[in-house]
From TrEMBL:
Record's keyword terms, sorted: DNA damage, DNA repair, DNA-binding, FAD, Flavoprotein, Lyase
UniProt-listed PROSITE patterns: DNA_PHOTOLYASES_2_1 (PS01083), PHR_CRY_ALPHA_BETA (PS51645)
Entry EC no(s): 4.1.99.3
Protein known as: Deoxyribodipyrimidine photo-lyase
Domain Photolyase/cryptochrome alpha/beta: 24-152
UniProt catalytic activity: cyclobutadipyrimidine (in DNA) = 2 pyrimidine residues (in DNA)
Family: Belongs to the DNA photolyase class-2 family.
Enzyme class, spelled out: lyase
Classification via InterPro entries: Crypto/Photolyase_FAD-like_sf (IPR036134), Crypto/Photolyase_N_sf (IPR036155), DNA_photolyase_2_CS (IPR032673), DNA_photolyase_N (IPR006050), Photolyase_Class-2 (IPR052219), Rossmann-like_a/b/a_fold (IPR014729)
Molecular function as annotated in GO: deoxyribodipyrimidine photo-lyase activity; DNA binding
Domain of life where this protein originates: Bacteria
Length: 464
């Protein structure tokens, strides 16, 4: 079932064509798994190139119009792609970042390819790109899944109701997929096969040439993109944050989190590498277990949701019970009502919520417990649940480095009842789970959190 760490379930041929006999090289069309190590798609491509007696080249399609992406996202991504170029060069693999729609870039680079190998994405445009390439390429196109621990269809063949239903399904397969992935040497090194590409030695110049939303700036002074930066943060977390994680992870002022979500989003680090390092860290078993719950169960539940929910970014994706109870309370009087602009400018009466909005605007990050509070308050302060949903998703995708991700869509929908159950009925929220300011104060130290955000951002946080 596996060949040196590449399980059969990860591999799917997207068309019925065979390799092109006249092909000059094997092409790895990198799009989701933006890394040169611990990458099942890359290693599969190397092995195919060796088997066919060809060289291997890698291409990435850089589109100006990626949905909802802005300067912040592109800057972080390009830092990571510069790491990819260096890592592939060390392995003798040519790499080109070419500007254009990713599917068109892949098809152009694939005209002289014996075989096209690609990684996997779950959002509708990512799926469409791969379908287009599979339909139009003159050779076999093979997809290899590398950004989840357990391939999504292996874990479950349906949309799961909640973590409690998904956990046993994914857990029964986990040990089989938690195995190291070896690195295969390329027998016929390449220099890029004349594919050209952008100069990644100066990401700033590349950014200047792209037609981007420049309203949200980069955060490279806090978080740099790329595999090297991800591994540095992971080492620090394993030493300082993982011991005690089970009891301390819900404290937003403490900083005992991994910060891996942004790197996982761009594929700069492998979830397999993260999981294996956590397991081998020597941290207490309960802390490793709590971390793997987030990395595997919660993260891959979000992938399950997007995979089996065509309308994953719409209010209509919510469970029927949640939409019904919110509709019943649609006309309830709100404590306060804020416009989207007021929310975006952190101009509410609640200093805790304002601190959360300031942190995400200035850093591209927000602790998960504060994300939940942030989203629940938007539901309570907006005239309709539909408008609250659109507002939360807009702000999430605009400011977070890990926005526009399966976790983004699942986590925003969770605020409105997804992957949850009915609770005690109350105004506005109906039977959807409620989170209050007093509850935040009881479970965490939001005052310390506010002070940390003020130190970090230099912005004074207060309630209006």
């Amino acid at each position: 079932m596996s060949t040196a760490g590449i399980q059969q379930e990860r591999v799917r041929h997207l068309n019925h064509r065979g390799p092109r006999e006249s092909g000059e090289y094997v092409l790895y069309w990198m799009q989701a798994s933006q890394r040169a190590e611990h990458n099942h798609a890359l290693e599969y491509a190397v092995r195919q190139a060796n088997a066919l007696g060809r060289s291997l080249v890698c291409v990435f399609g850089l589109t100006d119009g990626y949905p909802e992406a802005n300067l912040r996202h592109y800057a972080f991504m390009l830092e990571g792609l510069a790491d990819v170029e260096k890592g592939l060069r060390r392995r003798g693999i040519g790499f080109a970042v070419r500007r254009g729609s990713p599917d068109e870039v892949a098809l152009e680079a694939g005209r002289r390819a014996a075989l096209i190998v690609t990684d996997r994405g779950y959002l509708r445009h990512q799926v469409r790109w791969r379908e287009n390439v599979a339909a139009e390429a003159g050779c076999r196109v093979t997809q290899v899944e590398s950004d989840v621990l357990v391939p999504v269809e292996t874990a479950s063949d349906r949309r799961e109701y909640a973590a409690r239903t998904f956990r046993p399904r994914v857990s029964r397969h986990l040990e089989r997929f938690l195995v190291g992935l070896g690195t295969t040497a390329l027998r016929r090194p390449s220099a890029g096969a004349g594919l050209g590409g952008l100069d990644l030695s100066d990401p700033g110049r590349v950014l200047e040439e792209l037609d981007l939303d420049r309203g949200v700036g980069p955060v490279g002074h806090l978080y740099r993109g790329g595999t090297r930066a991800a591994k540095r943060l992971l080492r620090r977390f394993l030493e300082e944050g993982l011991p005690g994680y089970a009891s301390g992870r819900d404290q937003p002022h403490a900083g005992g989190v991994s910060h891996m979500s942004k790197y996982l989003h761009f594929g700069h680090i492998s979830p397999l590498y993260v999981a294996l390092r956590a397991r081998g860290s020597g941290a207490p078993e309960e802390d490793v277990g709590a971390f793997l719950e987030e990395l595997v169960v919660r993260r891959e539940l979000a992938v399950n949701f997007v995979r089996y929910t065509p309308n994953y970014d719409s209010y209509s994706c919510l469970p029927e019970w949640a939409r019904s109870t919110l509709e019943e309370h649609r006309g309830d009087s709100r404590e306060r009502v804020y416009t989207r602009r007021q929310l975006e400018e952190a101009a509410t009466h609640d200093p805790y919520w304002n601190a959360a909005m300031v942190e995400m605007r200035h850093t591209g990050y927000l602790h998960n417990h504060m994300r939940m509070y942030w989203g629940k308050r938007i539901l309570g302060w907006t005239r309709t649940p539909q408008h609250a949903y659109r507002t939360a998703l807009y702000l999430n995708n605009r400011y977070f480095l890990d926005g526009r991700d399966p976790n983004s869509y699942a986590n925003v929908a969770w605020v409105f009842g997804l992957h949850d159950r009915p609770w005690k009925e109350r105004p506005v929220f109906g039977k959807v789970r409620y989170m209050s300011r007093s509850g935040l104060e009881r479970k965490t130290d939001p005052g310390a959190y506010v002070r940390r955000v003020e130190r970090l951002t230099g912005v004074s946080v207060s309630g209006v």
